[in-house]
Amino acid sequence: MTSPEIHALELERVFAHSWLYVGHESEVTEPGDYVRRPVGGRPLFMVRAAKSREIRVFHNTCSHRGAVVCRKDSGNAKVFQCFYHAWSFDTEGNLVGVPGRDAYGEGLDFSELGLRPVARMANYRGFVFASYDPDIVELDEYLAGAKEYLDLAADGLGSAEIISGTNQYAIDANWKLLVENSIDGYHAVPTHDTYFKYLVALGTDLSTGVDGVGRSLGNGHAVIDYRAPWGRPVAKWEPMFGEDAREEIARLRADLVERFGEERAARMAETNRNLFIYPNLIINDIMAVTVRTFMPVSADRMEVTAWELAPDDEMPQLRQRRLDSFLTFLGPGGFATPDDIEALESCQQGFRSGGIEWNDISRGMARDPHADDEEQMRAFWRRWHEQVSGRDGAGR
Fold first, then answer.
1. Is the pTM of this model over 0.85?
2. Which domains does the chain show, CATH number per domain?
3. From CA 331, how far away is CA 324, in angstroms rounded?
């Protein structure tokens, strides 16, 4: 949790040899639309190419002198021009402009000097991933059992979009602590006690408890899947939504039943899923659907970015309810996020004392795993250990 040497190994053996989330296809719907962001600690940008209409993911670096080419977080462009020497590239990545081209002579092949695409890129249900390892398994194989839960989120939303705006912050703690926290059903009651009291005050019935399971999904992915103790804008009414929302949410539920059948509709409407896709993507399909990534800056600091995913044809009142649900619990000033940051930073402070070097995550090993056990965390740590120790060949 505190070792710079382990941090360096993670960058080399985990983040350089995994599929990493880049963004959602809804962020680049029109030709020339782009977003830029660090992925696995490296600057990239994703763009909808004008001619092919395909999504491209490029290293955000000029092939001339290495300067950053895409200098805004998002926008629309026909050409990306490097501000240093004005080399220009189209949305397909081709080098299309070189001032004083004649000065270079005939020995330089400009056709080979376009933007460099990432080694691998793939799209699953609108979620765009990239990998720096050209030999990594196909994304479909890599996702393994996580596909079931991505499908539940995608089908529940229908045609989905990332809502404009991001929630960005940093935590002075090791990134692996947030992995654990994100799929930890055990801490919710003591850590987020204020939120549960808030729900009860609004009329939410929490008396029946939370039933669920924790699962390993293969390749380090994991999930906690449990009955929703609170409302879900997908199709589960909650007193905090107001009486005027009852009929509307009933209609949404009926639509899910018509499209997917009663059993699958019930899973979408009445159960929560905290899904972890190894190594650093969390999809919280809970009172709202959030997409969250985090990246270690050092052994004791990480940067976190979160987005909200919603139906693109959602009625304004539904959208407002969804955003309220997201911000009330997971927003920067919500009931959960400040609690979690305090908990993780407290853990990191404790680790610095040197009294212990690792966490105990043995809860539930003597029984079939519940949602408040730790089997899902052990799935992450097993895969992490394989990679960091070089046992899967990623240490080459």
1. yes
2. 20-135 (2.102.10.10), 145-388 (3.90.380.10)
3. 9
